[in-house]
Backbone:
């Protein structure tokens, strides 16, 4: 039991050191840190811009590939979010159009029923007129 606790304690102590962020040194470290902070804070548009500025001023820095990857990832996320919003709006428009078309179809179905009833009534009237015409001809 003690051995298990000691192993857990050692893992936590060593693992905790691995999670401690290392302070960046070198040119542009503050700009990259600012971009990372913006990204963590959810200000993705600003973070993309900050990464772009960092890369413009420090294209050969050691962290430039990571900054470019972060910038590209955030930009892809922003593009996907914009596309999702566009698709959501399009789906809402399509639902409205579908509702309008259903209403129109219902109206046409109602009109069709009315026209069929009228046709049936006229057919019945025509048959009555034929019968009357036949009776008149027989009397002559």
Residues:
């Amino acid at each position: 039991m003690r051995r298990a606790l000691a192993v857990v304690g050692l893992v936590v102590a060593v693992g905790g050191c691995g999670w401690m962020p290392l302070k960046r040194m070198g040119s542009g470290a503050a700009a990259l840190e600012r971009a990372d902070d913006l990204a963590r804070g959810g200000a993705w548009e600003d973070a993309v811009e900050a990464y772009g500025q960092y890369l413009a001023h420090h294209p050969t820095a050691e962290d430039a590939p990571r900054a470019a990857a972060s910038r590209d990832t955030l930009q892809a996320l922003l593009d996907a979010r914009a596309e999702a919003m566009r698709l959501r709006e399009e789906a809402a428009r399509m639902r409205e159009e579908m509702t309008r078309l259903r209403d129109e179809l219902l109206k046409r179905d109602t009109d069709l029923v009315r026209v069929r009833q009228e046709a049936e009534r006229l057919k019945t009237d025509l048959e009555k007129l034929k019968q009357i015409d036949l009776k008149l001809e027989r009397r002559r």
Notes: The radius of gyration is 39 Å. Helices lie at 2-19, 29-40, 44-57, 64-139. Confidence is low (pLDDT under 50) at residues 14-21.
